[in-house]
Amino acid sequence: MSICMVGIDHNKANVDIRALFSFTKKNGAAAMQRWKKVPGINGCLVLSTCNRMELWASTQEDWRGDLLEELCKVKEVDPTQYEEYFVRREGREAVDHLFHLTCGLKSLILAEDQIITQVKDALSMARENYVTDNVLEVLFRKAVTAGKKVKTNVTFSRANQTAMDQAIEMLREKKFDFKNKNCMVIGNGEMGKLAAQSLKKTGAKVTVTVRQYRSGIVTIPMGCERINYGERLDFLPACDLVVSATASPNYTLTKEQVEKTGLSRPVIFIDLAVPRDMEPELSELSQVELYTIDDFKLDGPNAGTLQSMEQAEMLIQEEMDEFYVWFNGRDVIPRIQEIKDEAVTDLNLRLHKILHKLPLSEEERKDLEKSIDTAAGKVVTKMIFGLRDTLDQEEFLDCVEGLEKVYEEE
Question: What is the pTM assigned to this prediction?
Fold first, then answer.
């Protein structure tokens, strides 16, 4: 069995190219169900965020398919036109990438912890659609565990930052004063709420748009005002800064819509969505200063950050080693179970006469036999896995084969 992935991210593709390959929950589910039916693919999973999209699969060893081709079939585009934007990874390279990604070491904002939730949600979505398998299940669970350990035990100076935090830093460097400025955040999902919270901390006046739902209570970040989504254009002329962070497949703001509001002063527009929420042509308006998520880049790591990365690397390696112990031994576990059962049966036959000579009631004898079975099974398992930990893979498999022959029927 093999592990492979194909991915596109902010390092090789701009926001518009990434948008072509992004997935919503609905079309992501349909795509995974389609890929799961491809002969040779045992399980698949889609990780789709603002900064990246990755298609993961566990396949048969002899599978000769191409994940990029399968992806482009779903997106109905020519793979040769987009080959340059994608990276393919297999085996250990793919596993290494996932662990470092989940720990925030490959994020646009170093050590941001949203990616842990995104990876966890991607696994949950694959589970809900019955498209994952035990290899992807264990791989992604171990990666999330590594991410949580790094988050808990390693301190990064920029940890827990969001794209909005980076945007705020950038605008402050340009002498933009947030205090008492009118800011509107379009979207009340996870990214929208985080953006509103970050803006509120600056001292700005923050208003969040919400959509009308038939049921359920819609909550907004503490200290923020709210308006209905349909009122956003009426409210816009009073704003100094507008952020949009929705999962909508359509623009939340177009050039024509903004033009009709009759802006009389400069307004900063920040589009944090993939696909875009704001029409690119907005930048053609004289009163508009438009930014996308790709405009917020971090400088290289300093000495303190490099030390934190080394600490994170140790934790990552521990979890990766545990994954490989499971991965390399998963096929031999049923064989070990069979050896254990044979050994316990052998012991029972040898002790049968002795046990029946003891002055025990029938119930006491059964309890004793059960205890002996359990203890014997544990001892045999401990010995076999002890061999696994001290021998290399080939030597260990030879030992397992030898133990199997002990109880082969003549």
Answer: 0.73
